[in-house]
Amino acid sequence: MQLPSRFLTSDAGTFGEHTASVRWPTLVQNMINDLTSELTDDIIGTNKYQQGLIIKDQLIAFHEEILADKKLRKFTEEEVELAGIPHRFNEYLDNQSSHITWQDSEWLFAEIYLYRRVNVLFKFQSLWKSFDIFDRIKQSTFKSSLHGVVELAIRYMNLRDQFKSTTDESVLQILYKEFVEISLWGNATDLSLLTNATLEDIKSIQGAKARQESEKKIVVNDTEQSWNTIFKNYGKKETRVDFVLDNSGFELYADLMFAAFLLQTNLASRCIFHAKDIPYMVSDVMLKDFDILIHDLRDRSFFPVEINSVEDKALNIFANDMTDFMTNNRLEFREDSFWTCDLDYWNIDPSETKYHGKEVHQDLLNSDLVIFKGDLNYRKLAGDRTWARTTPWKTAIGPLATNGLTTLSLRTCKADVQVALPEGLDEQLCAEYEKEKPGFGSWWCSSGKWAVICFNDSK
């Protein structure tokens, strides 16, 4: 099969082109602004301040490099050594037939390369090498989610004891569907169906109209197939569910809520969360972000609810349950440089020995369901290629269709790549979005207003 090309930052009229020319310079400028905020009077004259100024000047130069559309350079040997840069990046650049620039390169590679370049600047300064330049935006965004965080914590608290006692398949399936959607949409979730009611009440209110309203923006929905995979093991064997994470803050909170439901109902005996090893894609989860989130849930200066109130109790119960799951090894966080390499997930393959692909594959074979969260993971699953939008999911994920992994992609659509649509739907959505954004109808799948849930069982 002749594979379609990958999306390029020079593809006219695409969201990728817009990202390279507009979003990346803005992103780096935001880093400069946030670093400036860190360089307060408290550290003026210190070594940390002087090192921070060096990084700031380098970020300014990097910003100018992107604006000037300079070629992508290789990492130096010193950068590779000090910042732990996978050799894959330089090998990729060596293999290009001509010089590639910020605005004329494969979108997937250049975007991931950008975050590695930024990480190098911090790694070279000893007092900043563990600093997360995105922590400020991560925290402010999560703090602004107070209402949703509290509401979901109360839902969890009111249903928690019932989770442990119910074995009703129909109730469990309804709840599974709800938690999948909460994990899918993150802070945009409509929580109205998870009321303060009992499980039996929840079962009774699930009408066709309510379900239809909740799901109308999910243009591919394989939730039922994934449910069948989870439930077939119920009460028969220990079940492991893996999450390849996307965003920290509320989305991580929603993912933890999904995991808590699975663990409390014994639909899963263990959940493993796969985080990033460097500050990445602005808001992606690192190992430290779990501890920060749990601390935030308990901190009344961060989430200012009244002490001893229902809200306070609910937040603390959820935080305590997460800590207990970690202590009892039912919930585990891991990191691996594979997840921050430019390689697409076709490289999660038994034959891939060079860049951890084989090791990742061997580990995930122990999982009963691997949930890939978010847009970037979807892009990597489909190779970020210019597939026709009706291309079957099994075709787009290549070796993952048949190499033994059971996978579920939960993606809010924020990039050009899109597959698995029924005939005619893309044209319909393009026409619909064209009314809102004249001249940009095809960008519906970059708008974040639609989502897909794609399942594959290759076992």
Automatic annotation (TrEMBL):
Query: Per its record, how is this protein called by name?
Result: Sugar phosphate phosphatase
For molecular function, the Gene Ontology terms on record are: fructose 6-phosphate aldolase activity; fructose-1-phosphatase activity; metal ion binding
Q: Under which EC number(s) is this enzyme classified?
A: 3.1.3.-
Tell me which Gene3D superfamilies the record gives.
1.20.930.60, Uncharacterised protein PF01937, DUF89, domain 3
Q: Which InterPro entries match?
A: ARMT-1-like_metal-bd_sf, ARMT1, ARMT1-like_metal-bd
Q: From the UniProt record, list the reaction(s) this protein catalyses.
A: beta-D-fructose 6-phosphate = dihydroxyacetone + D-glyceraldehyde 3-phosphate; beta-D-fructose 1-phosphate + H2O = D-fructose + phosphate
> What's in the GO CC field?
nucleus
Q: Which UniProt keywords apply?
A: Hydrolase, Manganese, Metal-binding
Species of origin reads Vanderwaltozyma polyspora (strain ATCC 22028 / DSM 70294 / BCRC 21397 / CBS 2163 / NBRC 10782 / NRRL Y-8283 / UCD 57-17)
Report the sequence similarity comment from the record.
Belongs to the damage-control phosphatase family. Sugar phosphate phosphatase III subfamily.
In the record, biological process GO terms are:
DNA damage response
What functional role does this protein have? Metal-dependent phosphatase that shows phosphatase activity against several substrates, including fructose-1-phosphate and fructose-6-phosphate. Its preference for fructose-1-phosphate, a strong glycating agent that causes DNA damage rather than a canonical yeast metabolite, suggests a damage-control function in hexose phosphate metabolism.
- What are the Damage-control phosphatase ARMT1-like metal-binding domain coordinates in residue numbering? 19-429
Written domain comment of the UniProt record: Subfamily III proteins have a conserved RTxK motif about 40-50 residues from the C-terminus; the threonine may be replaced by serine or cysteine.
Looking up Pfam families in the UniProt record yields:
ARMT1-like_dom
Q: Which cofactor does it need?
A: Mn(2+); Ni(2+)
